[in-house]
Every structure is written in C-alpha cells, then in structure tokens.
Amino acid sequence: MNPSEVPVDFDDLLLSFDWVSGATPFQNTAYISRLTGKIHWQSDLCDVEEDLPEDIEDGSIYVAVPHKNDLDLGRELVFRFVSERLPGAFDDVCRIFSKRGAYSRFKELLQRKGQLESWHKYEANATEEAIREWCADNGIRLEQGGGSLVP
User: Fold this and answer.
1) For all residues of the chain together, what is the average pLDDT?
2) CA angle 25, 120, 40 (to 5 degrees)
3) Which are the contacts of 89, defined by CB distance < 8 A and separation ≥ 6?
4) What is the CA radius of gyration of the chain?
5) pLDDT tens-digit profile of 33-91?
C-alpha cells in the first residue's frame, strides 16, 4: 500500500498532538507510521507501555507529531486572538506573558472580559486548521473520527 493511502484517524492524531503539546517540547513525543497509520508514543516524564520501533528515526517511515509551538499555536495564537478580538488588552496580555503561569492569568482576564468561550472556539478552529495543513504538508491522509474540534 502506498504510504499516502494509509489513513490516520483525526481523533487519534488530536490525542497524540495534545500529548506532545501537554509538556515542554521533546518531553512527550509521538510518531506516525507512514506504512500503517499507527501512532507510537514516548515520554521522558512517565512510563509508556510501548517500546518505540528501532527504526523510529527513519523519516521515510515515521513522522513526528508536532508540538503546538511548532504550529504557532502557543503564545503566537494568544497574541493573534488578542490583536483581533481584544486590542485594548494587548499591553495587559504582554505583561501577563512576561511571567510564569501566564495561561491561567490570561484565561482569568478572558473570563472577566466575557471572552473565554470565544477563545476556546478560536483556539479549536486554529488547532484544527493547523493540524489539517500539517497533515497535507506531510502526506498524511486523515480519516474523520468523531468530528470537528469546533462545536
């Protein structure tokens, strides 16, 4: 079977993307087999029951699932959202992100301004779009799982 014909379930890919993005870069990793569509997981933080295949570094067979920062879905996304939806709060958000614990303080600000739900939808849309574009760029054919990220 041609590797581009092997489907990867969108929901499984999203779970692995969240796994990779849930830690600092390179602490959690996931790889998609271009031959089977199977996703292999690894962590420096906890034991994962699966051993990675010996040829995991072969880019013709496996592709690493990106971290959210690789797709500009971290701070960059926050600042895009603020520029578009809350331009008057831009300086406040810059101050928030100059210190540790920024995301919780950012979400508190959004809650006060009635924009938390809007942020979650914006983030979900951007994530879905970026993952789909990344898959297209890497020759990964998505099989729709449970549906879109956006309600």
Assistant:
1) 89
2) 35
3) 82, 109, 113
4) 17
5) 999 999 999 888 787 767 889 999 999 999 999 999 999 999 999 999 999 999 999 99
Residue whose pair of structure tokens reads 């959202």 in the numeric block? 81
Q: How many CB atoms lie within 10 A of CB 65?
A: 28
What is the four-CA torsion angle of 67, 69, 70, 76, rounded to 10 degrees? Answer: 150
- C-alpha closest to that of 9 among 48, 39, 43, 50: 39
Measured between alpha carbons, how far is 131 from 103 in angstroms, rounded to an integer? Answer: 22
Query: What number is the average pLDDT over the span 15-24?
Result: 90
| SS3 state of residue 138 | coil
79 touches 93 (CB < 8 A): yes
The pTM of the full predicted model, rounded to 2 decimals, is 0.83
Nearest CA among 149, 147, 135 for reference residue 8? 135
- Cβ–Cβ under 8 Å, residues 63 and 34: yes
Alpha-carbon span 38 to 65, nearest angstrom: 12
DSSP code, position 119: H
Q: Are strands 141-143 and 7-9 parallel, antiparallel or unpaired?
A: parallel
